[in-house]
Amino acid sequence: MSINKQIMFNIFKDMSDKEKKNEEVEEVEETQQEEGAETKDKKEKKKEKHEPKKTEKEKYEDTITELNFKIAELNDKHLRLYSEFDNYRKRTSKERIELSKTASEEMILNLLPVLDDFERAMKAIEPNEQTATLREGVELIYNKMYTMLQAKGLKPMESIGTEFDPEIHEAIAQIPAQDDDSKGKVIDEVEKGYYLNDKLIRYAKVIVAI
To answer: Is the pTM of this model over 0.85?
Structure first.
C-alpha cells in the first residue's frame, strides 16, 4: 500500500509542477504583450510629438481643398444629370416629330387617289365654252388641295424621259423603243409617284421603252 501511495504522490506532484510551469509561461506571455503594447503606445506618442502641428493656414488650406473636391464632385453630378435630361429632351422631341410625320404621311397617302381623280377629270373635260365653267371649278379645287399638300412637304416625281429606276419606278408595261436613245427610259406615266419631305411615299407606275 505504501508503494501505491508513493506512486500517486509522485503523479500528483508532476501534475502540479506542470500546472505551475504553464502558469509561469502564461504570465511571461502576458507580460511581454503588455510591454509590447506599452512600447507601441510610446512610439506612437513619440511620433506624435515629433510630427509638427498644422498651422491655422494649413488647416484652412486643407478645408479649401476638401470643399473644392466636393464642389467638383457636385458639378460632375450636375453635368451628368443635365446631359441625361438633354438626351431625353432630344429623344422625345424627335419622337414627336416622327409621330407627326407619320400621321401626315398616312393622311396624304389617303388623299393621293383623290388628287389622281382630279387630274383625270381635268384631262377628260374638253376645253370649250360649254365646259369652261366646270373645268374652272375643278381646277380651282385641285389647285387648293395641291397647294395644301405641297405645304405639308408633298413633291411630285418627274419620271417621263428619265432612266427607269426600280428603286422609284414600277413598270406596268413595256413597249419597243422608237430609237436607241429612248431604250430603258420611261416614255409614259400611268400613275404619278410622290415624295414627302424627300421620302418616297408612292412609286410611279410607268411604261418603259425596251
So the answer is: no
